[in-house]
Amino acid sequence: MDLYTALKLGWWATLGIVLIGTAVLMGGDMGVGALLRLVARSDAQRRACLNAIGPHWEGNQTWFVLAGGASFAAFPLLYATAFSALYLLMLLLLWSMLLRPVGFEYRSKLPQRAWRETWDWALVLGGALPMLVFGAAFGQLLLGIGFDLDWNLRSSYAGNAAGLLRPFALLCGALALSLACLQGAAMLMQRCEQPLAERARRCAMAAAVAALGLFAVASVWAGQLDGWELLRHPGSGVAQTPLQQAVAVYPGAWQLGFTRHPALWLLPGLVVLGLLGALAAARARRALAAWRLGALAWVGVLGTAGASLFPFLLPSRTDPSHSLTVWNAASSRDTLLWMSGFALVLLPTVALYTRWCFRVMRGKVRQEEIESSDHAY
Fold first, then answer.
1. DSSP 85-118
2. What is the pLDDT of residues 235-285, one digit of tens each?
3. In principle, which of 34, 88, 110, 295 could form an S-S bond with 128, CB 3.0–4.6 Å?
C-alpha cells in the first residue's frame, strides 16, 4: 500500500472517529434535552437536568465542529457536494441547534412559568430534531443522494430535501434519537438525585429496547435496499476523479463488505451487545456502565454504516458512476500529510481534555447548590 492510499484510509477512519465522538458526547446532551419534559416534573428538576450537562455541552460541540473541519480539509469534494446537496437539511440542523444555547442562557432569567415552559419546549425541540436529522442523513446516504457532475466536477442536484422524509431515512433518524436518549438518560442517572434519577433509569431502559428493535428493522431493511458497488476505477498512481469509474447498483450490494470480510459482523454484534448490556446496567442502576455500553452501541451503529458504505462517501442516485468515494474525493497527498501531523497532536488533546472535564465535574447536582449559585442555569 502506498503512502497516499494509507493517508486516504487513515482520514476516512479519522472522520469516523470524530463522528462517533459527536454522536456519543453531543448526542448525549441532545438526549437530555429531548427527555427534559418527560423525566423532570417541576421547574427545580428541569434546572437540575440542565445543570447536569451544563459544564460539558458547549465543549462537546467541539466534536461537531471537528467533523465539519475534517470533512472540509480531508475530503473537500465531499464537503462541497454534500453541503450543497443537503442545504435545506443543514439549515434545519443549524436552526434547531441555535435553540439550545439561547434556551440554556435565557430559560431561568425570568420567573414566569410561561416563559420557562416556552424555553423548555425549545430545548426539547433543539435536542430531538438534530438527532433525527443526524440519523436521517445516514439513512439518506444508504438510499443515495440526487446529484451528478459535469465535465469540470460542478455539481447539480435534484430532490434531496424530500428524501429525508422517506421511511427508511426516518427510521434511521428514530434510531439515532433513541441512542441519544439512552446516553442522556444514563447521564441523568449519574448526575441527578431521586426521584429524577429513577425516571431517567426507566427512560434509559425504554430507549435501549427501542434502539434494539429499530436497529434490527433497519438492518433487515438495508439488506433489501439497492446498494452501490465500485466495479472499476483508475489504478494506483493515476489521478482519481468521479468521472473515471464504473459503479453498479443492485439490491443487497451494501452487504458485500460483510460477505467478503466476515469479521465485520462484529460491528452489528457490538450494537446488540452494547444495547443489551446497557439495558441490564440500567436495570441494575449502574449508570456509568449504561453510559459506556450506550457509547459502545454508537460505535457499532456508525461502524456498521461506514463498513456498508465503504468505499463510498456520497453515493449518487442520479448517476451512480459520479459517486464520491474515499479514493476520488480526498485532498492532495501533501495536504493529508500535513493534516495528519496536526491531528496526531490535536485529536488526542481534545479527547484527553474532554475526559479531564468529565472527571473534574463528576458528582451529583444538588438543588441547594443550584439555588445558591449565580452561575447555575
1. HTHHHHHHHHHHHHHHHHHHHHTTTS--HHHHHH
2. 665 556 666 788 899 998 999 989 999 999 999 999 999 999 999 999 999
3. 34
Residue 222 contacts residue 254 (beta carbons within 8 Å): yes
Nearest to 274 by CA among 255, 285, 289: 289
Taking a C-beta distance cutoff of 8 angstroms, is the pair 189, 287 a contact? yes
- Amino acid at position 345, single letter: V
Task: Write out the E strands in the chain.
Answer: 147-149, 155-157, 226-232, 246-251, 312-314, 324-325
Alpha-carbon gap, residue 162 to 176, rounded angstroms: 19
Closest to 227 in 3D by CA, of 137, 143, 138, 321: 143
Cα(56)–Cα(130) distance, integer angstroms = 18
Cα 137 versus chain centre, distance: 9
Is there a contact between 66 and 21 (Cβ–Cβ < 8 Å)? yes
25 touches 60 (CB < 8 A): yes
C-alpha to C-alpha distance for 57 and 123, rounded to whole angstroms: 13
Cell numbers for 245: 469509474
Length of the chain in residues, anyone? 377
| Contact between 177 and 137 (Cβ < 8 Å) | no
Output phi, psi for 231, to 5 deg.
Answer: -90, -40
Task: At 238, list the grid cell.
Answer: 493515476
Q: Cα dist. 323→134, 259, 303, 311 in Å? A: 21, 22, 20, 10
68: left (phi over 0), alpha (psi -120 to 50) or beta: alpha
The DSSP bridge partners found for residue 156 are 148
Which residues are CB-contacts of 236 (< 8 A; sequence separation ≥ 6)?
2, 5
pLDDT at 65 over 90: no
Residue 366 CB neighbour total at 10 angstroms: 13
